[in-house]
Amino acid sequence: MRRRLSAEGWAAALLLGLAVIGWCVGSIHLALCGTLGVVVVLLLWVWQRACLTNVSFRRTLSHERAMFGEEITLSIEIVNDKVLPLTWLHVEDGVPQVLRIRGGTVEDDTSHVAAVLHLLVPMLPFARVRRRMVVECDRRGAYTFGPARLESGDPIAYGRRRMRCEGTDRLLVYPKVFALQPPAIASRMLFGDQRSPAVLLGDPSRVAGVREYVLGDPLRHIDWRATARTASVLVRVYEPTTALRVAVFVDLRVPRVEGQAAADLDEFTIAVAASFISDLAARGVGVGLFTTGSLDGRRVTYPPSASASALTDTLELLARVSTVGRTTLAELLVSEGRRFASGVSVVVIAAHFSEPTVEAIADLRRRLPISSIWVGSDRGAPPPAGTVDAREEVAYVEDWKQRDTLELVG
């Protein structure tokens, strides 16, 4: 099978023929023009073929994990390890579309979810070029940088060659963590109105005494024998338990308004959950996480644990979780709640407490104490009075990303 000549081949053949004719007829100018043209075509052909030979690309992130609002450094290094210079080198590197990158030119890629970082540099022989940019981590999530595509060619850009660099780097941005104001000191329930500097979640197997009944005390704590001998209603007082465990349920199914979901309210709800989990872990409480979202198509469930990695594990789950899931909060409370043994406290964080959710809470409350945190907005309803043991409210504000504290209303 015959191979067709390329455009460069035809040009070289014609110029070579021109040079031969010039030398044959004794025309020095025509011969020199033809010879010089052949040399230029061959030089451009070699330049095009060898432009990306021994060219290397390296991308480095200063951190693989970052807190919300943190800034990290993105470094790019390009090396031309050969004697042939590059009059131009175009680099296209895949970067996250939702993160802002300062110090570089970023354009959205309409064919992909990622954006493209563009670099255009010339390179001398055996040269090394470094560029540093700043990545603003103002969106939680797991992000991928790369792969990169390099493109170069001859000086007039007539012929080009492309090379793909498959290496990728990953970045995990944790959700925003607020400082709780006032601090959520544990009381009889996890978040009660009567705050105490000591942890008063009691161990039912260790009764320390009795005291008079106070509005809000669970009826199951009433000591009926002691009450029968006095004129007052008395409740048992338990010794503080040494291994507190709290299961945090987070509802990411925000009610829709005019056919659109409130994505920002979802993100704020995740930040609220991360803040309470961080506060609990800092006080030595074993925490677990259950959400209506999904991760790689699976339900997010993390049983309560007091291990050293529990806080990191739960924050990582909240960073990666998708707000889209098939499970409702009511279904989650029913399916997971039945697995909890006595001594586990339940915290429900939601922007809307629907009727099925309230019914599931009432059923689970027969065995376990339940606290609620309502993310207040115009999109949902709080839990009705008396349906939970303790209730807190956190108001959604549009500028929550710029705030450092989370105000609690009991």
Detail the topology: elements first, then pairings.
Elements: H1 7-25, H2 28-50, E1 55-61, E2 65-66, E3 71-80, E4 86-95, E5 100-102, E6 105-108, E7 115-123, E8 127-136, E9 141-145, E10 148-153, E11 160-165, E12 169-173, E13 179-181, E14 202-212, H3 224-228, E15 234-240, E16 245-250, H4 263-282, E17 286-295, E18 298-305, H5 310-320, H6 329-337, E19 344-350, H7 355-364, E20 370-376, E21 390-395, E22 405-407
Parallel strand pairs: 2-12, 13-22, 16-17, 16-19, 19-20, 20-21
Antiparallel strand pairs: 1-3, 3-8, 4-7, 4-10, 5-8, 6-7, 9-12, 10-11, 14-15, 17-18
Helix pairs in contact: 1-2, 4-5, 6-7
Order of helices and strands: HHEEEEEEEEEEEEEEHEEHEEHHEHEEE
Strand content: 35-45%
CATH topology of the largest domain: Rossmann fold
DSSP helix fraction: 10-25%
Strand order of the largest sheet: 18-17-16-19-20-21
Uncertain segments of ≥5 residues (pLDDT<50)?
Answer: 1-5, 185-201
Could you report the average pLDDT, rounded to the nearest whole number?
84
Classified by CATH, the class of the largest domain is: Alpha Beta
Q: How many structural domains does the protein architecture include? A: 4
CATH architecture of the largest domain: 3-Layer(aba) Sandwich
Structural class category: alpha/beta
- Characterize the biggest β-sheet: 6 strands, mixed
Number of strands: 22
Q: CATH-wise, what's the superfamily of the largest domain?
A: von Willebrand factor, type A domain
Counted by DSSP, the helix tally is 7
